[in-house]
Description:
Strand content: 15-25%
Largest sheet: 7 strands, mixed
Number of strands: 9
Shape: globular
Helix content: 40-55%
CATH topology of the largest domain: Rossmann fold
Amino acid sequence: MTFPxxxxxxxxxxxxxxxxxxxxSIGGLPLAAYAMLSTAMLGGMYVLWSRAKRSQRHAAAGVxxxxxGIEQQLSSMQAEQAKQTKRLTVLxxxxxxxxxxxxxxxxxxxxxxxxxxxxxxxxxxxxxxGDSVERLPNQTKNAVRTWTRTVxxxxxxxxxxxxxxxxxxxxxxMRGWAAGADxxxxxxxxxxxxxxxxxxxxxxxxxxxxxxxxxxxxxxxxVTSLEHQEEFVEATQRMLADRGLSEWAQVVHAPLTDVKxxxxxxxxxxxxxxxxxxxxxxxVDGPPRTVGDAARYPAVPLMRDRLASDAVIILxxxxxxxxxxIGERWQAExxxxxxxRLRHDYGTFVxxxxx
Length: 355
């Protein structure tokens, strides 16, 4: 897992920009406004939650800093709307209807300023935004509804994950290149509920921390994370050390090397760094797709002989065509495994060995 090291503020800003671009391409200015402002509000909410365990002074400072970013985004959106109002004479009614809704959302986001705000209040504010969707055109309405359901699901998984772990400090960021809250909670529950002990992770980052928390809760086991970039090895090791999890996880520097499987060649982690079996859980989230086609395929062929009798294989980013093809190929090669596709934000493909 690639490590998101540039901070919460950049992650929120990037999410706002991406949501705005997506909204413009799908439903024009109305959807862009909703996508942008809802993402900004969710970002503020996440910062508020992640700082909840810290001192009141630090929490207030962190929330205020990110609220300034949200306010800047709102100001920019309002200025852009004023320009578009002059140009888009064909949409005067829609723009007029959008104005009060923008003001209502801005007021809701402004309410996040209090550092002692709770998640229930944020749920209610997000619900009020959803109510206004009913006044949008059907195509835009459907897109916003889908997006809002995703936001709710991520929020619920994040809340549940904090309840499960009850950490003494904030969990690592779970947006951008990192795994989302839905996948992170699935990984935690898979380990905690099924007693996974010998875990191999292809790629390191926030999920390494989540897996280590689960092993610590069980009282036994270790996750070995293969990582080809040294800076990410060091960054993940720091995250583990800061949370007292170093004894439950090992981040191994495994440079990418040429691997031959039959007549096919791949660039994959140094196979000699794979730990001994039996491996009862394999989480595949690397190498990155920039390495080449089917970059993650070698994981199963190289570990197949070391998989435990109850092994589970989990592949991230299964919505992408390359990962879908990899999952189908694994499924064909492992007739004693049952496949499952989870509707996570980025898509998750699961293979479980039959009892």
